[in-house]
């Protein structure tokens, strides 16, 4: 440990860097000692090193006779003195340092150590400069109008610049208020902005002009009335201190009044013109209103906003109530009213800004309810000191009327008979010609309606939508689904056909047509409907009428296969005495009202009777092949005699005879039934 202490030894420290001070100011030079032995309270001596390395004694903490006679008067007067800062620290003090005091100063400590080690003195340089800093302020144009620029110039000069640095501060005094700092530049080339001017500096409203040669300029752009006041320019001279020079010490400061700046307020001026660049002449046409700000003066860094309003042109009302459509605020944000929120969201109404001074209101499809007066109000906003916005001026435009004579949609449907159903089972055909007026790009839907009696309850048959989708409505007979047809045969022509007209089909048929137009979302909107004249099916009924349909599981079979066919017969208007119906062809079939309508003869038949008034009597189903008459005849000849054979042949020939022109078909397959 002793060896280590001997190695370290005593340490005497003074400031490392040269001390630059201004003549006439008080100066203090500190000296510290550490790592010493002996008494805790250490003694110090200060001397000035002369040119020939001789020492000029100044002050001593323990020897009053240490002072050199040449400086005794200054020591006795207190101009040069020392101040003990502690047991191991002292400072040399000059009450008013002189230029001749510049030089190299030594701080010494007498040894109290067992062994002489370390350093027992340290030297520091003192440079005393004259008070040469001068500030010459100038304001080239002290009276400006609002919106113009103000330049604040500070010219600085000094005779000594080594080891010193300058800073410049611009301040303003408004009336009796204290000085308010605007901006500080230096001493390390950094910029410090006053609290009330931060946003303005960020927005580019404060600009430095550093031309060099001691010239410092600050430009206030877009002057405001609040910039009016007395301006002050202050220059400060600084030196670095500390071992690493991180700290600054101000050694000199000069402040000069720059003069008063007068800012003449200028009134914000502008006009608003509203015109209709697109004026609709009918419903669904677009509307475009253009709101333009003209003759704009003294807006400077202000902003413009707009509010669109509407009022209905109600006859007899002197004052019209205005309804706000939407507005654009100073931030450019769109604010929609509740009445128009949905149309603005869907894009039917658009509020935009074409240029900084032009606002546009556009309605893509103008409605009848949109007719009325429109106006725009333009608001000018100016920034406040607290980074906000305040309304400076508002100008309302003259109203513009959006008006047209509404064209009422007209729809006519003309129906005429193309083919008449003169008898049961024939085809009925009618055509409907559509004529529309005052309809924009319409689509038509057609519904065929049926009335049993004129003016009675109608029944929907089938329809064709505006998108050409065919829909069977209340026509629900399974066996007659394909009996009705509706098709578009021309651009505005539709045809309806009814195949196999029946007694129940008699009545009145007509077209129910609806015109559709599209909205801004391309959805269909119903415009108008119209009905055609009524076309009657009125053929005279002459007796029972029935319809026959046959269905087979398979058309081609081999010998020995089983096949099943279903024959559906619909009978209408049958009299009470009607009792027998026959199907005649290669196979002759008669049906009668037995307890069962099912015959297990390889072929199954089903009888369905509809609307029979008195279903009393016998219905017979008879089936003969080419071999059956011969078989019956031979059996009758053996059993009953020749008369029975003749009677059987006569009956077979009378009721179920073959067609003499018919060519026998091959019998290796079952034949399809043919019906008249």
Automatic annotation (TrEMBL):
InterPro entries from the UniProt entry: Ig-like_dom (IPR007110), Ig-like_dom_sf (IPR036179), Ig-like_fold (IPR013783), Ig_sub (IPR003599), Ig_V-set (IPR013106), IgSF_V-set/TM_domain (IPR051102)
SUPFAM superfamilies linked to this entry: Immunoglobulin
Alphabetical keyword list: Disulfide bond, Immunoglobulin domain, Membrane, Repeat, Signal, Transmembrane, Transmembrane helix
Subcellular location: Membrane
Domain Ig-like: from-to ranges: 9-117, 137-253, 265-396, 406-529
GO cellular component, as recorded: membrane
Membrane spanning residue stretches: 628-652
Topology with respect to the bilayer: Single-pass membrane protein
Entries under Gene3D superfamilies matching the protein: Immunoglobulins
Broad class of the protein's primary localization: membrane
Pfam families per record: V-set
PANTHER family tied to this protein: PROSTAGLANDIN F2 RECEPTOR NEGATIVE REGULATOR (PTHR12207:SF3), V-SET AND TRANSMEMBRANE DOMAIN-CONTAINING PROTEIN (PTHR12207)
Protein name per its UniProtKB record: Ig-like domain-containing protein
